[in-house]
Design a protein that fits this description.
Blueprint (H helix, E strand, L loop, with lengths): L5 H4 L3 H12 L8 E5 L5 H9 L4 E6 L2 H10 L4 E4 L12 E5 L8 H10 L6 E7 L5 H10 L19 H8 L5 E13 L2 H9 L4 H4 L4 H18 L8 E13 L7
Parallel strand pairs: 1-2, 1-4, 2-3, 4-5
Antiparallel strand pairs: 5-7, 6-7
Helix pairs in contact: 2-3, 5-7, 6-10, 8-10
Length: 258
């Protein structure tokens, strides 16, 4: 799994935090023990702490840089290194995962395993970017296929987002209650560079990291040019950057709603 850089990821802190807050708002239980899988720099963990001030929270991530940033942000919370794909959620009644499972191979199977491990009334809450077909992400692959970059970089282990029915079938059973929805955030940016900066912290990482400095600069220049054409400015000068996301909340039998 890709190891992220906290400083780059947090350039758009408010925008990145919004989906996790909206996911939290749909969680039907008042959990006692929460694991924040793929906690990153702790943005989602902050939202969990605000929503559930009495709960014990543990943050898990593979990136030491992200974990260090999270610990600085929330020094009273335990953060530890771990792999989402193999994590054992025993003892947690809320398994929360914001924007991580798109990087987990066979994530349908992993989500089913996590859900099956929940206690009675336990809950799984997941959000994943669903933007592989958006211009911002299609262009990444198109630039990577150019002769100058062919065979040098790709989108790494990113998993395709499945249909609503596939997630429902994977989670029910073991879950009795499943809520699935899709939201497109229409983000307003000032320039194509804002879009490039956004994806530099996430989707572009697997494309850029294998390249040397010169090739990286060349790739970014080609990508910026393509993004400028794909996202033209409106008459008022603003640029709209649509960003679809998939949300899932599932709970085991015995659910006690808060």
């Amino acid at each position: 799994m890709q190891l992220w850089d906290a400083k780059t990821y947090d350039r758009f802190e408010a925008e990145r935090a919004r989906p996790s807050r909206e996911l939290i708002a749909r969680i039907p239980i008042a959990p006692k023990r929460i694991v924040d899988l793929g906690c990153g720099s702790g943005l989602s963990t902050v939202a969990l702490r605000e929503a559930f001030p009495k709960a014990e929270i543990v943050g898990v991530d593979l990136s030491p840089d992200m974990l260090a940033a999270a610990a600085r942000r929330l020094p009273k919370i335990l953060f530890r290194e771990g792999d989402v794909a193999t994590f054992n959620p025993s003892g947690f009644d809320l398994v929360f995962a914001n924007a991580v499972f798109q990087w987990v191979p066979n994530h349908l199977g992993v989500l089913r395993r996590l859900a099956a491990s929940l206690p009675e009334g336990g809950c799984l809450a997941v959000q994943m970017p669903d933007n592989k077909q958006e211009p911002s992400h299609r262009l990444m692959s198109e630039i990577a296929a150019l002769p100058a970059f062919q065979g040098k970089c790709d989108d790494g282990p990113r998993e395709p987002i499945r249909s609503f029915s596939e997630y429902d079938a994977a989670l029910s059973p073991p879950c009795e209650w499943v809520d699935i929805w899709r939201t497109t955030y229409v983000q307003r940016v000032n320039s194509p560079d804002d879009i490039v900066k956004w994806v530099e912290g996430t989707g572009l990482r697997p494309y850029l990291d294998p390249l040397d400095a010169a090739a990286r600069a060349s790739y970014l220049a080609a990508y910026r040019e393509a993004v400028s054409e794909a996202y033209p400015a409106q008459s008022n000068g603003a640029i709209q950057f649509p960003f679809p996301r998939l949300f899932i909340v599932a709970a085991r039998a015995g659910l006690t709603k808060r």
